[in-house]
Amino acid sequence: MKITEASIWGIHLPLKEPFVVSYATFPYMPSIILELKTDNGLSGFGEAVPDEHVTGESFEGAYELLKHILIPEVLGESPFNIEHIHQKMNEKLIQNPSIKAAVDIACYDLMGKASGLPIYDLIGGRAHERLTYPKVISIGTPEKMAAQCTRALEEGYKDLKIKLSGDVQADVDRLHAIRKAAGKGVPIRVDVNQGWKTADQAKRALSQFDTLDLDWVEQPLAPHEFEAMNELRSHSSIPLMLDESVVSETDLNRAIVSRAADKINIKLMKCGGIYPAIHMAKTAEAAGLTCQIGSMVESSIGSAAGYHAAMARKNITSTELTGPLLFSCDIGNLNYQIPEAVLNDQPGLGINIDRVALDELSVKYDEIKGDLTK
Ligand SMILES: [Mg+2]
């Protein structure tokens, strides 16, 4: 089986509401969808969601690099040669993990379809009975965020993930309002998205979070602050998770050596896909860390890929792949039943692609055919 053709769509996934984090506001999510076709008639889908702030990629640049640099490398290859494909991609491009993830996910979708198995069965099987997801609450006033949390719990969510701004007093007010609304015992995790500027500011904030019974605090400081993260860990009993600090396996090794984290938020878009994500989870496990599979707000394609990776590894203990719930129109049908994402046993990703929606949302499109004599 050889990959013979590729199609690429640059799409704008419409958000129900603008997505606000400490460093940016997104009115829609730009995404790159990849379809790889093989000489035996199979079709596999992958996705790249580039993000200048996290992966260092722009939508336009990532699209062109996928088209001109990576696709020529995979045409003629068997999707089963995933190690070899990653080696080739890494030799051609030092970074650009999201477009490597698009190729990786499409290859796994093809492997699954060729073998008649869901992706999780190819990479470890069902290590979890269920995969839950939290309600993610964007930055707003304490009253608005608390009301959103109350509504989420009424809808059946079991966990809350709160985005914080970095303004310590405002964040403390937000969290007190949310804890009061949610009541005791509801798991709450927070994401500061690098919002605290110094270790002292972070210490001050964490000491005021002590009574709030938080599950963990994610990315309190700038990505390079590994030593300060180690200092924070000795200062606070709240577990700390690294997200933007750990893009690649090299970063993970640095986090382990500097004892900078209790948990790692792995994202397929940061590390280059399912294959490197599983490798990172194993490395983290050896160092005694647990992992989460998060997302860059991806469609059903990237989100399903993340859930397959999470399903197959025991030390991936939480997931946050809620992109499809934020879109007013998606291109796939990943099955969300609050508070669980349900993976079926269909081959590959196990989702159907809505080609009409894909065409409607696209702002760029290209087809690349391979040299069949290769
Ligand atoms: Mg995060």
Automatic annotation (TrEMBL):
Necessary cofactors: Mg(2+)
Gene3D superfamilies cross-referenced by the UniProt entry: Enolase-like C-terminal domain, Enolase-like, N-terminal domain
Residues binding Mg(2+), per UniProt: D191, E218, D243
Gene Ontology biological process: peptide metabolic process
CDD domains in alphabetical order: L-Ala-DL-Glu_epimerase
Domain named Mandelate racemase/muconate lactonizing enzyme C-terminal: residues: 142-239
A Gene Ontology molecular function term of the record: racemase and epimerase activity, acting on amino acids and derivatives
Pfam families attached to this UniProt entry: MR_MLE_C, MR_MLE_N
SMART domains given in the database record: MR_MLE (SM00922)
Keyword annotations of the record: Isomerase, Magnesium, Metal-binding
Superkingdom field: Bacteria
UniProt remark on cofactor binding: Binds 1 Mg(2+) ion per subunit.
Active site: K163, K267
EC number, UniProt record: 5.1.1.-
Class of this enzyme: isomerase
Family from the record: Belongs to the mandelate racemase/muconate lactonizing enzyme family.
Entry protein name: Dipeptide epimerase
